[in-house]
Amino acid sequence: MSTxxxxxxxxxxxxxxxxxxxxxxxxxxxTSMDRVRAHRAIATLHSFRFFGLVFILPGVVGPNLPxxxxxxxxxxxxxxxxxxxLALITIRIRPVFWLFVIAFNLVGMGDLILDYYHAIQxxxxxxxxxxxxxxxxxxxxxxxxxxxxxxAFYLLLRPEPRAxxxxxxxxxxx
Length: 174
Fold this sequence. Notes:
Elements: H1 3-31, H2 35-46, H3 67-89, H4 94-121, H5 136-157, H6 162-173
């Protein structure tokens, strides 16, 4: 099997495994809580995206890792992670919290989509060994990040159930 085929197989199976896990365990857990707590849990996961800086750390990745991929991926992850941290820090100031939730999801999902584009343009699948120890990031971590971004947007765009709106209204009156 070629390096490219192994990488692509790993990537697809990473999505399959996380979709199964997400559907069986994470989705029921997230849907059992209110929106703020669900977005807080998602932001907590994404706050660790600073780790993407390893793509530009010599000795962790190979010297021939395409810079067009590595630099953008590293700083895009850092930006998304910092925005997620800001969401967590501002949870008590709801308008600001929601602004950062939207921001980290837009930046984070945009980063992942552009990382896929840059990886394809740079021929990264055929050079996947250059990822070194960072190989696990696109195979194990990125699928979960993408899945949680999609779910976060679903939560943001879904109308709030009437019962929750009614309770929120009663709480505001009291």
